[in-house]
Write a structure and sequence with these properties.
Structural class: alpha/beta
Largest sheet: 5 strands, parallel
Radius of gyration: 16 Å
Helix content: 55-70%
Strand content: 5-15%
Number of strands: 5
């Protein structure tokens, strides 16, 4: 199989990391999780970085990781962060790779209801919601879904415009999603 560079994009909890690991395994390629790389670079979890140091510092770190990947990676599967669509500097590196390295920009599109259900479940485990939900001060699950709805619509629209390939993922396993990606890029 020829060299491949595939970026997986989509909203938070759409399955980018899980599918990315599966796809990397199937293709025998390295897997890179951008959130993990940001944590290595900054020495703190991405959620804490965002909350304590703000969106701009987080976006700078995210763009720096994108630059590092862009210059140092010619093949692999890269899972981006769920909010990368709001970081034009980071997206510029992905776009450059799509042009110069023939990288594939793949959106994993999971329904709003399913994504929000995952966010609620993880947030119950962690004891806190992502900052963009927490700032809306939700009192119950209905509030969380209402707040999330506008974020989901905005980000999904951005990813659909930016990505070359869109994979619908509801009800599919990471293996099935990976197989669809392979079919789409070949």
């Amino acid at each position: 199989m020829q060299n491949k560079l595939i970026y997986l994009l989509g909203v938070k909890h759409s399955g980018k990391s899980t599918t990315g690991r599966e796809l990397a395994n199937l293709m025998n390629l390295p897997f890179i999780d951008m959130d993990t790389e940001i944590e290595k670079m900054t020495g703190m979890p991405v959620r804490r970085l965002f909350v304590e140091q703000g969106a701009e510092v987080f976006k700078q770190a995210e763009a720096a990781v994108c630059e590092e990947i862009s210059y140092g990676c010619s093949q692999g599967i890269i899972a981006t962060g769920g909010g990368i669509c709001s970081n034009p500097h980071a997206l510029a590196f992905l776009q450059k790779d799509a042009i110069k390295k023939k990288a594939h920009l793949v959106m994993l599109n999971l329904s709003e209801y399913e994504v929000c259900s995952r966010i609620i479940a993880v947030s119950k485990e962690r004891g806190s919601y992502p900052a963009y939900i927490a700032k809306g001060n939700p009192k119950n699950e209905e509030d969380v879904r209402r707040i999330f709805s506008s974020v989901y619509a905005e980000r999904t629209s951005s990813y659909k415009e930016f990505c070359q390939i869109i994979i619908e993922t509801d009800g599919k396993t990471p293996r099935e999603i990976s197989q669809e990606i392979l079919e789409a890029i070949n």
